[in-house]
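HUMAN: Can I see a protein plus its fold?

ASSISTANT:
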Amino acid sequence: MSPEVVSDLMREGLFIAMILVSVIIIPSLCVGLVVSVFQAATQINEQTLSFLPRLLITLATLVVLGPWLGGLVHDFAVKLIIDMPTMLG
C-alpha cells in the first residue's frame, strides 16, 4: 500500500469523523449559548437548566440525522471493504 493511499484514507476518515462530531455538537453549542444568555439575563443559576435542553437537542439531532450519519459511515466502510484487494495487492 503506497503512502498516498494511506494518506487519502486517513484524510477521508478524519473528514467523516469531523462531520459526525460537528453535526452533533453545533446544535448543542447553540442551545447552550441561548440558555447561558437567558441565565445571565435572569440570574438563574440552575445546573439542570443548562444541561437538559442540550441533552434533548443532542438526542433530537441524533434521531433526525442519525440515518444520514450512519449512511456516511456505512458508505465509507463499504468503500474500504470493496477497495481492499486493490489497496493490498
Observations:
- The helical segments are 3-42, 47-88.
- The chain is about 90% helix and 0% strand.
